[in-house]
Amino acid sequence: MLKSLSIRNYALIESVEIEFESGLNILTGETGAGKSIIIDALSLILGDRASSDVVRKGNDKAIVEGILGIAGNQRVKILLEQNEIELQDDLILRREVSVKGQSRCFVNDSPVPLNVLKEIGDHLVDLHGQHEHQSLLRSETHIGLLDEFGSLHGLVDEYRMSYDRLTVLFSEFRALTRKENELKEKRDLYEFQIKEIDAVDPRRGEEGDLENELRILENAEKLYEATSQLYQSLYEGEPNHQGAENIGGQSVYDLLVKARNQLEDLAGIDKAFEGSKNECASAAAIIGELTKFIQSYNSKIEFNPERLEQIRERIGQITLLKKKFGGSLDTVIEQREKIGKEFLMAENFENEIQKLKVQIESERKICSAAAQRLSTKRRELVSKIGESVCTELAKLGIPHAQFDVKIENRMMGKSDGEVTSAYVKLGRDYYEAAPNGIDFVEFYLSTNAGEDVKPLVKVASGGEISRIMLALKTILAKADRLPLLVFDEIDVGISGRIAQAVGKSLKSLSQFHQVVSITHLPQIAGFADCHFTVEKRESKNRTSSSIRKLDEEERIKEVARLLSGEEVTEASLNGAKELIGMK
Predict the structure, then answer these.
(1) What's the CA gap between 274 and 266, in Å, rounded?
(2) pLDDT number for residue 133
């Protein structure tokens, strides 16, 4: 049950705290006082969409928080565990909406996505908003109400899972056949491109290797001359013809060896030269290794005009492929892989399509069987729901009502003309199917004795629609056992004796559920277990709405006001006591 509701800076409400009770909670107040605003705020913590327009002028954000008792509610506890939310007997739902339009949701102080908040709310509250009864005037809503009445959610889910799998298979089938047609048109082009690329047979990284080899071959003579000179300068040098004082003809290696020997002599005299001696020895060793490499490199240099021409031709072939297929060698190779797969697919399309057809037929059998079970169960409910609704309508002042549920299955075609897009096949016939089955459901109604039933959407008046919805809610609520039912102005279009009947029906519902209802009618307000009044006040040029729980005396006066208007008379007070059951 809903234990409390806190609303701050929401529309006309600056701050209210409401402590609800079990049984029938009634909200009354002048038109425009803000009764429906409270229901709208409640809908926020149940997962409805939010708008920045709800934030009270001059504030940064609106905050709505509700505390609900969930002891024994296993479905909600499972949801909390699945979303790793701390489990408590009291569930705290909070919603914050900023003036910038940002919305934040919390469950037991843990932030959650909006869909989680909505899923939890769906297991706690049936909120019948203002004018929602008009949904009965849309026949597509009738199938959902029938399924609720029969608790067919399990069968619906079983069918829908198969339907969804078929949807995916059909999508794959359409994509594959579309691809087949496209590839048939491109097959010759792909074959030509594959031959063109394979004739060159490029490999990743080849272009860089070829360019490096080309650069070396093109500069072979320069490399040879340069390495020869280096070797001579570093290691061989020129003979010294001018005496010991002239060292210009000696190699670098010879000079370093001579310096090393001199440093060794000096180090023998003064240890300060020890480091310099070692460094000079290392330099001589490095020059020695360097000259070995240069000599080896020089000996391997090739002068190969034929190989040079081969490389130039190969680079030209690769350059041509790059121009045709995307600007880089990697792109060429990726294109080859891609069109190779596409070409292979084109070669094997018939097998792939046949595999999909087998999968579709297998899943179609599963879907068809689930659809037939669901349809059979729905047809078994027709007389039962008709009797239940008529019983409730009689209590609500429509004693001669006839309520019927028409279920239609629409055939698509015969097996001799294969309908590959059909989800359901029963016998030799294919049937139109939707995510909720093959049944097209519509409610029919007659409210007068002797008249035939006609589509409810065409014959029901506003007051009758309200009572039909209440009747449906009554029988559905008994089946579903949601802990909280909320009715925003279920009394539209009724008065007098009928209002009394509606009040009795709400009171009856409150024996099984906590009920919160907004009403303008004293006949309904008189049945309250807990009565609140919503008031609108002006202060400092600002309008705000507030709510307060009425004690027994205030409650009598409020019901009397609903009876007689602003001027409460002795007669209206007596009438109020009678409606409340004090006389």
Answers:
(1) 8
(2) 54
Query: Can you give the residue ranges of every domain in the chain?
Result: 1-124+482-549
What b/e readout covers 507-542, taking b as 16+ CB neighbours within 10 angstroms?
Answer: bbbbeebbbbbbbbbbbbbbbbebbbbbeeeeeeee
The matching CATH number, chosen from 3.40.50.300, 3.10.310.10, 3.30.70.20, 3.40.50.10490, for 1-124+482-549 is 3.40.50.300
The single-letter DSSP state of residue 246 is: -
The 10s digit of each residue's pLDDT in 484-531 is: 888 886 777 777 888 888 888 899 888 888 999 999 899 999 999 999
Q: What is this structure's pTM?
A: 0.61
Helix/strand/coil for 114: helix
**pLDDT tens readout for residues 44-96:** 998 888 889 999 988 999 999 999 998 878 888 888 889 988 888 889 999 99
DSSP string, 485-553: EEEESTTTT--HHHHHHHHHHHHHHTTTSEEEEE-S-HHHHTT-SEEEEEEEEEETTEEEEEEEE--HH
Q: Are 446 and 453 in contact (CB under 8 A)?
A: yes
Residue 403 pairs with which residues in a beta bridge? 445
Parallel, antiparallel, or unpaired: how do β-strands 484-488 and 454-455 relate? unpaired
